[in-house]
Specification:
This protein has five helices and no strands. The protein is an all-alpha fold.
Length: 150
């Protein structure tokens, strides 16, 4: 019985793998286009629920010689990096002012900039309050226990 089950499982998986090689990409694409919810569910099922991460302190496991070699390697890399010619662009920054949001254009007359700008009212927000209307809070009525249950 066990040998038959293993043989069946092996044959089934080999047939499934062969079919997937032929039609797998097309089937996945069809499911993605026609049933996006099923496609996302399959993708989610492939992600492991829990991932075990083990933290090991490699520095504590290193010998003194290994630590000294690592320090020397880091110092060599830092010295090589400091020795490279850095590309520096020299210049001075000129202050530039941007126009105020919703303000007049920079080409506008100076006296126009002193007047406050008028904003258009948001019709959606104006109508939102009147469309629904204020809702009054009503206290919940408590159900009295029936005398039969007491």
């Amino acid at each position: 019985m066990e040998a038959t089950r293993r043989s069946f499982n092996k044959d089934f998986l080999l047939a499934l793998a062969a079919d997937f090689k032929k039609h797998g990409a097309a089937a996945i694409e069809k499911v993605r286009k026609t049933q996006p919810a099923a496609y996302l569910k399959i993708c989610a099922l492939l992600v492991p629920r829990e991932m075990q991460i083990e933290h090991t302190n490699r520095i504590k496991q290193m010998t003194d010689e290994e630590i000294e070699q690592a320090i020397e390697a880091i110092q060599t890399m830092l010295a090589a990096r400091a020795g490279e010619a850095a590309k520096v662009i020299e210049g001075t920054a000129e202050p530039a002012a941007l126009p105020a949001p919703n303000g007049p254009s920079p080409e506008a007359a100076p006296e126009a900039t002193l007047e406050p700008t008028k904003r258009k009212p948001n019709r959606l927000m104006m109508d939102a309050d009147t469309a629904v209307g204020p809702k009054e809070r009503k206290p919940r009525q408590r159900k009295m226990p029936s005398p039969a249950s007491a």
